[in-house]
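Q: What structure does this chain adopt?
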Amino acid sequence: MVTKIQNAPNRAAFDVQASQDLRNQFKKDPQGGLKAAAQQFETLFLQMVLKSMRDTVPTDGLMHSDQTRFYNSLLDQQMAQNMASSGNGIGFARLIEQQLGGHLGGAQLEDGIDDLSAMIAGKGLPAGLPAAGALQYREVPSSLPTSAAYALQNALAANSARSSGEAPTSARDFVNQLWPNAVEASRSTGIPPQFLVAHAALESGWGKSEIRHPDGSSAHNLFGIKAGKSWTGKTVDTLTTEYVNGVPQQSVEKFRAYDSYADAFRDYANLLRNNPRYGGVIGTQDGTEFARRLQTAGYATDPKYAEKLSGIINGPTLRQALIG
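A:
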């Protein structure tokens, strides 16, 4: 008897038999198998979104451990599956089903099912599909809410970076990678290097949510600096959140792109030194005051920006990473 995996809510997301059941179901009912495979594919992407969102939450404190992270990952898997199977997902399953069902048939359709099954089983992207990081905002279905598109874009880009080994795997790696650049920027601004690293951590999610090009490569913009009219260098378009009268609003904006993190730190230091509104920031030696002055100068519109930055500067994650 073939297992009907369309009833996904009744099945654990981590059931290792799911991939084989897709193949079995396809042999009995090709269209049903395609629908199930597309649904599981959407589940995989939703799981990436949830993981990316969870990665932005600090993991310090008594309530966080390897055990809680493990069970949170299981919860994310199950939530993603329930969302996809209940029709409250993001529409990828429907699009995949239409594309494969409308253009492939017979052996080709079976190959498509095998590719999707292999990906669901964790064997990587099929050769005919683009790299995950290549999926950008403009390629997301127009019906997808802006907030969901932004989360998905970051999840895919971060996943691509982790796969290529670009992104640091921990706060300690993040600090070690950027420390020499922070020390150089500190010499020209008089701001302690740990404050600068903390600012980069806030803007880039400790390197996990940094701005990326359409091909998934890093734009090395660790500080979220936009490309104004005077900027003549490289740029990249990405979604961002701005607060208008305390209300978050999302839009696609043009940001500066650099060839390296060293270039990003140099440009950031130049911005603080040469823009008069950041005059009060230069030379600040107190972390909380540094964060407050940055917000007062208008660096960001988030009303809690100073609080968030101060929390990183004075928090245990940065402290432990600096200890090494």
